Amino acid sequence: MSNFVVVANRLPVDLTTHPDGTQEWLPSPGGLVTALSPVLARHQGCWVGWPGVPDAAPEPFEADGVLLHPVTLTETDFQEFYEGFSNATLWPLYHDLIVPPEFHRTWWETYRNVNLKYAQEVAEVASENATVWVQDYQLQLVPGILRQMRPDLKIGFFLHIPFPSADLFRQLPWREELMRGLLGADLIGFHLEVNTENFLSLARQVTLTGSTIGQPDKLQVEGTASIRKVTAYITAPDGRKVGVAAFPISIDSAEVVAAASEIEPIEASGTVILGVDRLDYTKGILQRLLAFEELLESGALEPSEIMLIQIATPSRERIDHYRKTRSLVEEAVGRINGRFGTVEHPVVHYMHRSLPKSELLRYYKRADVMLVTPYKDGMNLVAKEYVCCHKDGSGALVLSEFAGSAIELQRAWLCNPHDIESVKRQLLNALTADPEDAKARMLELHEQVLTCDVNLWARSFLECLQ
Ligand code: ADQ
Question: Does the beta carbon of 35 sit less than 6 angstroms from any atom of ligand 1?
Answer without folding.
Answer: no
